Amino acid sequence: MDIKERIRLDKIEYYNMALNYFEFILEALMHCYIDTKEIKELVNHLKEYKEEISGEMFYLQYILKNIDTIDEDALDRVLVMIDDLNRRTYEYYEELGGRYADKVYPFVPIYHLNRRDPLMNVNYQLMEEVKGLTLTERDIANYFNHCTPYLYMKDHTKIFNTEDTVPFGIYTDTINGKISAIKAVVPPIRDLKSALINVHEYKHGIDLYPYLGSVYPTDIDFETPAKHEEEVFRKKYVRNK
């Protein structure tokens, strides 16, 4: 299924949900099965669903706009995430409407609403994954503001595919026990995961840069700041891309 078809089906799903909700509301108004407060709740749920489905269509349109620059394997993985979110969202609001259907229509089995993670959290994660599909080395350079340590690391970086056996990380050369060079091994940037590995290793190398010509500082924690940098990159850079 191509992306344009996914967008078309999203619109159809919303219209189907809206028809079901309006049917519940009409029956309720005709027979006074539910009160005004519950009708307002039902309308608000429909508005929430529209926001959810609009968000999903935004992701799909964003991908469609940048499709020529996106890695196919990374795209397939993110589309599976979008499809899963779509399914769980539709089922959630369908069951939510079913609670009111139980009151509107006699002898309808009671619906039990399945618990789920707050979609806002899921959407933030999905937003990062979708925008991560368009990240490049230029984004990493912009994030680190082309600082001197980053430029040094860029000149001392080897890029290996994830299929290669060489582990990603920071490596140092030494002369007389002192650091003579700092080298990074990172994957090509295809998606959010590969971009975060780049950020992590570059941050590690940038923090180590001041110790060029010195003995490796074994009493300093380089890992924690690198992990923190991943979070900052996701929340401050990727979400606003």
Give structural notes:
It is a single chain. The chain is mainly α. It folds into 2 domains: 3-132, no CATH class; 137-238, no CATH class. The protein is built from 8 helices and 3 strands; from the N terminus they run ααααααβββαα. The protein has helices spanning 3-31, 36-65, 72-104, 119-132, 137-143, 148-155, 192-208, 223-238; strands at 157-159, 169-175, 178-186. A 3-stranded mixed sheet has the order 1-3-2. Helix 1 packs antiparallel against helix 2 (36-65), helix 6 packs across helix 7 and helix 7 (192-208) crosses helix 8. It is elongated. It starts with a helix and ends with a helix. 22% of the residues are buried. Mean pLDDT is 86; it is low at 107-113.
Q: Multimeric state of these chains?
A: single chain
Estimate the strand proportion. Answer: 5-15%
- Rounded Rg: 25 Å
Average pLDDT confidence is 86
Described by strand count, sense and barrel closure, the largest sheet is:
3 strands, mixed
Parts with pLDDT < 50 across at least 5 consecutive residues: 107-113
Structural class assignment: mainly alpha
Which sequence of strands runs across the widest sheet? 1-3-2
Label the overall shape. elongated
Domain module tally: 2
Give the strand tally: 3
Number of helices: 8
- Run of helices and strands: HHHHHHEEEHH
Level of helix content?
Answer: 55-70%
Distance between the termini: 27 Å
